């Protein structure tokens, strides 16, 4: 009985990275299974003047090469095939096409992380590290070609910033990349989120650096910008560190209560609601990712009434991050429970 009920509940969840973009879903499916990569190529070409949407399309299409079909491991060498994915074939056919090189670079990065795994660095085996680094090297080569072929496009600089973080590059190199990226697009959503990641404690910074960056960006960002959610993302990173590293004996609920009692973190949530979520601006490409973070912050700090319209805007499109960051409970379980609480107050 319990199993049947849970299956019915999870049918209300959709974790496909293409989310509610039907054209993107179909393009990724056709390309992934080798039927036709034309729709995928056309979608990327059509995004050349929309950097926000372009970053999303590149990321989602790259993710379509992970999960086995595009990242087969050679049992004799332990290496991932870097020629079999549709992005590899597209780049080989079109060596002077910046879109092809850009998507392939990101797909190699996705495959590198599939090999490494998403856990803490201490749990990664030496052979995983070796293949992770090799794939990142190949990704960097493809991305350099994309940068040369489309010098004004900020998207390859987003890839490069991602690679810098993955490789634990020096602060000087990261800041140089950051300057080039923001020169091309001062409010680039994905770029700012990556910089937040770089500055968080689990990578190369501290809680103080991370929150300072997030709040200074939000203070300057125009009304309606998704960058108003950046401090909420910082709080989610803080909570993850606290429960996994700093205070592992504290329950997730106890850490959530600390979030609730912090007036500055609560002000961050208020700001994201007022200056972004409740604004009439058109939805940006990654709205559903950002609104999941906002719902997560409201749910973790007990603001169920405020969370109700946020969950309504999410619908069934759960994103694994940040919901999988909640203690030892499954992310989809926490999401469904939090959404149910919010709906009762709607």
Produce a short descriptive summary.
The protein has 346 residues and is mainly alpha-helical. It is 66% helix and 0% strand.
Describe this structure in words.
The protein is mostly helical. It has 2 domains: 17-116 and 126-153, no CATH class; 221-346. 66% of the residues lie in helices and 0% in strands. The chain contains 18 helices and no strands. The protein has helices at 2-10, 22-32, 38-45, 51-63, 86-93, 98-116, 126-149, 155-166, 171-184, 189-199, 207-220, 230-246, 252-261, 263-277, 287-300, 304-314, 320-323, 331-345. 45% of the residues are buried. The model has no long low-confidence stretch (mean pLDDT 90).
DSSP summary: helix tally:
18
Gap between N and C termini: 28 Å
The backbone outline, from C-alpha atoms, is globular
Low-confidence stretches: none
Compute the number of structural domains: 2
Rg (CA only): 20 Å
Main sheet?
none
Strand proportion, as a percent range, falls in under 5%
- Please give the number of β-strands: 0
> Helical proportion?
55-70%
What layout of secondary structure does this protein have?
Blueprint: H1 2-10, H2 22-32, H3 38-45, H4 51-63, H5 86-93, H6 98-116, H7 126-149, H8 155-166, H9 171-184, H10 189-199, H11 207-220, H12 230-246, H13 252-261, H14 263-277, H15 287-300, H16 304-314, H17 320-323, H18 331-345
Helix pairs in contact: 2-3, 4-6, 5-6, 6-7, 6-8, 7-8, 8-9, 8-10, 10-11, 10-12, 11-12, 12-13, 12-15, 14-15, 15-16, 16-18
Q: Which features would summarize this protein structure in a list?
A:
single chain, 346 residues, mainly alpha, 18 helices, DUF4034 domain-containing protein
């Amino acid at each position: 009985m319990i199993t049947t009920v849970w299956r019915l509940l999870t049918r209300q969840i959709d974790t496909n990275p293409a989310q509610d973009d039907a054209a993107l879903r179909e393009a990724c499916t056709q390309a992934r299974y080798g039927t036709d990569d034309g729709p995928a190529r056309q979608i990327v070409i059509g995004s050349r003047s929309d950097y926000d949407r372009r970053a999303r399309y590149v990321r989602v299409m790259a993710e379509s090469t992970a999960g086995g079909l595009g990242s087969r491991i050679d049992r004799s060498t332990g290496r991932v095939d870097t020629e079999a994915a549709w992005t590899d074939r597209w780049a080989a056919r079109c060596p002077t096409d910046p879109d092809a090189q850009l998507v392939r670079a990101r797909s190699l990065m996705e495959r590198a992380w599939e090999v490494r795994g998403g856990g803490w660095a201490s749990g990664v085996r030496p052979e995983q590290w070796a293949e992770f680094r090799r794939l990142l090297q190949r990704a960097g080569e493809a991305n350099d070609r994309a940068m040369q072929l489309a010098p004004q496009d900020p998207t390859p600089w987003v890839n490069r910033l991602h690679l810098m973080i993955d490789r634990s590059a020096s602060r000087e190199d990261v800041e140089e990349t950051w300057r080039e990226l923001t020169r091309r697009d001062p409010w680039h959503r994905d770029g700012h989120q990556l910089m937040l990641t770089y500055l968080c404690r689990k990578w190369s910074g501290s809680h103080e650096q991370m929150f300072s960056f997030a709040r200074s960006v939000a203070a300057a960002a125009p009304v309606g910008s998704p960058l108003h959610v950046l401090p909420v993302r910082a709080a989610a990173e803080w909570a993850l560190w606290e429960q996994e590293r700093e205070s592992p004996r504290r329950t997730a609920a106890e850490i959530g209560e600390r979030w609730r009692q912090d007036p500055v973190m609560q002000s961050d949530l208020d700001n994201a609601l007022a200056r972004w979520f409740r604004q009439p601006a058109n939805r940006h490409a990654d709205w559903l990712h950002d609104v999941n973070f906002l719902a997560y912050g409201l749910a973790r700090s007990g603001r169920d009434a405020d969370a109700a319209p946020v969950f309504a805007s999410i619908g069934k499109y759960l994103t694994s991050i940040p919901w999988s960051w909640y203690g030892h409970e499954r992310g989809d379980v926490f999401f469904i429970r939090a959404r149910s609480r919010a709906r009762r107050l709607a």
